[in-house]
Amino acid sequence: MDMSDLISILNQAAHDPPKDAESRKQLHDAARKLMFAAEGHHELMHRVLFSQIPLTVSKVAADIDVFRVLSSQPGEQHTTEKLAQATSADGILLLRILRGLAAHGLIGETSDGSWYANAATEVFATEMIKDGIDQNQMTLGPCHQALPTFLRETKYRNPTNNTHIPFNVAFNTCEPVFTWLQHHPANLKAMIGTMPAQRSGQANWFAEPTIFNPADFTLSQSDMEAGRVLMVDVGGGGGQQSLALRTARPQLGGKVLVQDLPWVVSSLDSAQAQRLKDHEIEVQTADFTQPQAVEGAKVYYMRNILHDWPDAECLVILRHLRQAMSDDSVVVIDEMVVRKGASSHKQVNYDICMMAVLASMERTEEQWGVLLGEAGLRVREAREYDAGSGDSVVFAAKA
């Protein structure tokens, strides 16, 4: 195959990408490798040095509703003048923003200079992505900017104190981020709103027969008669994962509890509260840095909790759970497991973000083993359910 044939195949794939998720992932990964291999030093320079530009133009576009306007009329082509009227933006300024969006694949551009919604536009028109843009612009971005200077001043020591990190420098505060957010409602709204986006479109491991073992979530008849709790969703927020369990495995008996801080529980809207009630899911106020009040549950489940905390705080959380566990209880940790020798840009992005904002990290399986061991637990097994991100469920039993 000569180069012209390869280029033709790649262009065809760009216009008609595969429909199934696994083929899309394989094509995406191969295309990234090809991009890195083929780019010259000028392309490399622009990719890295101007990496903030896509977020910047996305923020402006979201603020003036470009994504919503375009996506509300799928298949329609819009002139710059028409969009200027719809958004009340200056025409010359809008043209510059539109070109930036098109260059980064976020909207489509025709040969005559009109604009239309592509697949990315539809995604960026959603409220949760708009919240994600706000979170990165308002909260995460300043922390990332502060990271190099902070590391230089701390002699390049790995951050482990969540009140002495780039976040504290960026916002001139001594508070940890979760305390600070409670006093900054716009930042808090953006954080809460973007949470669903982090797992949007991802496989639900509760429904995967190769991942989910019913034996881990099944109570005996005597357990049922004694009123044993099936699952405690520790730090479960709005209970999305508890709902996913009830939906995917409706035959499972036993009480399911969602625990979180009072301000999180009080922020649940009435519709979500009713959904939880309809699925017989109880909500409790609790602080996982304090002793666990529910003893002997079959499962203590945490999704994306421990990656928010340095090891010392994780040990406090885990030891409280171990103290509450029965001999056959299991702690299920639903998080990334970082692979050795195969760095993923998704895992790296989250890991550096955790460092700058929370003094925490994404962990390898070996790091999970050490952490759990120090808490008096052991890794029984780890099962990956999303190869794209490395998201896995780590099952921990008493050591």
From TrEMBL:
* Residue span, O-methyltransferase C-terminal domain: 219-377
User: Which keywords does the record carry?
Assistant: Methyltransferase, S-adenosyl-L-methionine, Transferase
Enumerate the active-site residues: 307 (proton acceptor)
| One Pfam family per UniProt | Methyltransf_2
- GO terms assigned for molecular function: O-methyltransferase activity
Gene3D superfamilies assigned: Vaccinia Virus protein VP39, Winged helix-like DNA-binding domain superfamily/Winged helix DNA-binding domain
Q: Might you name a Gene Ontology BP term for this protein? A: methylation
Q: What is this protein called?
A: O-methyltransferase C-terminal domain-containing protein
Organism source for this protein?
Saxophila tyrrhenica
